[in-house]
Specification:
Pfam families: PNP_UDP_1 (PF01048)
GO biological process, one term: nucleoside metabolic process
Mean pLDDT: 89
GO cellular component, one term: cytoplasm
Distance between the termini: 30 Å
CATH topology: Rossmann fold
Radius of gyration: 17 Å
Low-confidence stretches: none
CATH superfamily: Nucleoside phosphorylase domain
Number of domains: 1
EC number: 2.4.2.1
Largest sheet: 5 strands, mixed, barrel
Helix content: 25-40%
CATH architecture: 3-Layer(aba) Sandwich
Protein name: purine-nucleoside phosphorylase
């Protein structure tokens, strides 16, 4: 626990204004940060070491464009066998450390015809289609994604993200059903983190990196290595980092 105590003390001294969760392949965005302190997920209470490639499993404190931030390089997924408490540990730690603004990123499959690999889709809403046992908390209406933060992003395609449990990719029939339900992209994270953050009073924004066409919409076979390859391309990481930087700098510390 000594490592966590030191990290917590550093966080309280730094007073981060924003927390960022970097999804599959997007970890290189941490190069934008002037690092003050860091800890491995395994050293943080309630966390677990990610088993998915492309999730570095580090919590980083530092300055991004001069703004104090807390950045999580990777996340924990339900399909790794984690409970709701563990899958949302990043969010709850951020709230505990006084952060008021959460920025989530993920890698996702594109369902909408206008989305192609390498595109970035700010999320305006989501469909939470997780297995019942993966999401055990009272149902309640909640406004999740901040219109204020969304308005700071350049005019681009915004869409609805469908969150499924995984770990298997969707079937073509499932993708057709999701499209009929209004989903523009699909992945295996983000929704529970966003809802938990909103319930805790954090202002939330989220961006999907489209890494592939969803099942049945292209001739290729879906593979996680392809997801990492697209999300990790320097040009894609750079564009994602630019959007995050705008939200960090222009978005202020979040609505109290």
């Amino acid at each position: 626990m000594a490592a966590f105590a030191a990290f917590r003390d550093s966080a309280r001294s730094l007073a981060p204004e924003a927390a960022v969760v970097l999804g599959s392949g997007l970890g290189p965005a941490v190069e934008r940060i002037s690092i003050v302190a860091e800890a491995k997920f395994g050293d943080l209470p309630g966390f677990a070491v990610p088993t998915v490639h492309g999730h570095g499993g580090r919590a980083i404190l530092g300055h991004w464009a001069g703004v104090p931030v807390l950045v999580f390089q990777g996340r924990m997924h339900f399909y790794e066998g984690h409970t709701w408490e563990r899958a949302t540990a990043t969010v709850r730690l951020a709230a505990e450390l006084g952060v008021r603004k959460l920025l989530l990123t993920n890698a996702a499959g594109g369902i909408c015809d206008d989305l192609h690999p390498g595109d970035l889709m700010p999320i305006r809403d989501h469909l939470k289609l997780l297995d019942r046992d993966a999401w055990k908390r009272p149902a309640e209406p909640i406004s999740v994604y901040s219109p204020r933060l969304l308005a700071l992003l350049p005019e681009t395609f915004t869409g609805t993200y469908a969150a499924l449990t995984g770990p298997t990719y969707e079937t073509p029939a499932e993708i057709r059903a999701l499209k009929a339900m209004g989903a523009d992209a699909v992945g295996m994270s983000t929704a529970v983190e966003a809802e938990t953050a909103a319930k805790l009073g954090l202002e939330v924004a989220a961006i999907s990196c489209i890494t592939n066409k969803a099942a049945g919409l292209s001739s290729g076979v879906l593979d996680h290595s392809d997801v990492q390859h697209v999300a990790g391309q320097p040009e894609v990481v750079g564009r994602m980092a630019n959007l995050l930087e705008r939200l960090i700098v222009e978005g202020g510390p979040g609505i109290p």
